[in-house]
Amino acid sequence: MKKLLTLLMLLVFAVGMVACSSDSDKKDDGDTGKQEEQQNGDDAEKADEEAADNNGEQAEGDAAEVASENKGFQEFIDLLKEKGLEVNGIQEGFGDVPDFKDNINLVISGEDMLPVEIYELEADSENLKHALDKGEVKVVFEGQEGYLPATAKGNYVFLLAEGHPDIETIESIIENDFTGE
After folding, report:
1. How far apart are CA 168 and CA 153, in angstroms?
2. Residue ranges with strand state E in the chain
3. Which of 26, 49, 111, 126 registers the highest number of CB atoms within 10 A of its CB?
4. pLDDT band for position 58 (50/70/90)?
5. Number of structural domains the chain divides into
């Protein structure tokens, strides 16, 4: 009886192994296809990143040109450097503030996740008037409108990231030294 029961268990085990092995072969073929798709996706993603990097270099070059041609932007950059802050990058701005003439983002002290956004707005802009009066500026992002805290002086609006380690120095420069002329 024990031999018969053992033989029966071995038979069930063998059938189960055969059934599972044929399923895993199918899954392996599917996985291989998925791996190839993943590899192709990774290659495409790398190509996209390289293109973005190249566009970023171009955008950074264009932004640096905009900054050098805009007296207010250049004044602010010079003031940052005079106060001992390092300007690590000048990038093309996001353009989320309506009625802007020019805008750039500055990477200060290596804080590329917390850029300082600077917008030059039209002198007669309602958004500029609101920023000067209320300390907030209207932004439009992906079709949604809202207001963000902002510092405004002259025709310039500054969006400062709250967690930036040099925020007090930057605010002091805007308030006390920056003329925007």
Report:
1. 16
2. 87-92, 100-108, 116-121, 136-141, 144-149, 151-153, 156-159
3. 111
4. very low
5. 2
Examine the fold and report which residue of 19, 40, 69 is the final residue of a domain before the chain moves on: 69
Residue reference for tokens 């200060």: 108
Average pLDDT over residues 19-24: 64
- Cα 127–chain centre separation: 24
> Tokens for 10?
């071995």
Domain termination site, one of 69, 84, 117: 69
Q: How far is CA 8 from CA 12, 14, 146, 161, 177, in A?
A: 6, 10, 72, 71, 91
Task: Single out the residue of 83, 78, 81, 77 nearest to residue 158, CA to CA.
Answer: 77
Question: Domain range holding 138?
Answer: 70-177
**18 or 23, greater pLDDT:** 18
Domain match, 58 and 76 both: no
Mark whether 81 and 167 lie in a shared domain. yes
Does one domain contain both 115 and 157? Answer: yes
Half-sphere exposure of 78 (CA within 13 A, CB side): 12
Antiparallel, parallel or unpaired: β 151-153 and 156-159: antiparallel
User: Which pLDDT band holds residue 79 (cuts at 50, 70, 90)?
Assistant: very high
Q: What is the pLDDT of residues 117-145, one digit of tens each?
A: 999 999 999 999 999 999 999 999 999 99
